[in-house]
Write a structure and sequence with these properties.
Helix content: 40-55%
Strand order of the largest sheet: 1-3-2
Number of helices: 3
Order of helices and strands: EHEEHH
Shape: extended
């Protein structure tokens, strides 16, 4: 298992709802008055794997003109369980 971090502000996500999610951790930075949340990964390894593969595929499509990015992303995808070797 593990935690998942995302750096995006989603106006559709209510912080109080996040705080009610079991396993949620909160972090606060006083100097910038910023709040961060980490959520546990789902209990379904298959769903997690599919989500990670889809994210890598999106990043590959967005970076197809950057050979270094493509190489790093392909390496990351190959390192996933069941990924191409």
């Amino acid at each position: 298992m593990g935690d998942q971090y995302q750096f995006a502000k989603d106006p559709n996500v209510d912080p109080t709802t996040l705080l009610r999610t079991p396993g949620t951790k909160t972090y606060h930075i006083n100097s910038n008055n910023e709040n961060f949340y980490s959520l546990p990964l789902s209990s379904s390894p298959e769903a997690d794997l599919a989500q990670r593969q889809a994210l890598i595929d999106q990043l590959l499509a967005a970076n197809n003109n950057n050979p270094a990015a493509v190489q790093a992303l392909q390496k990351a995808k190959a390192s996933l369980p069941g990924g191409p070797k």
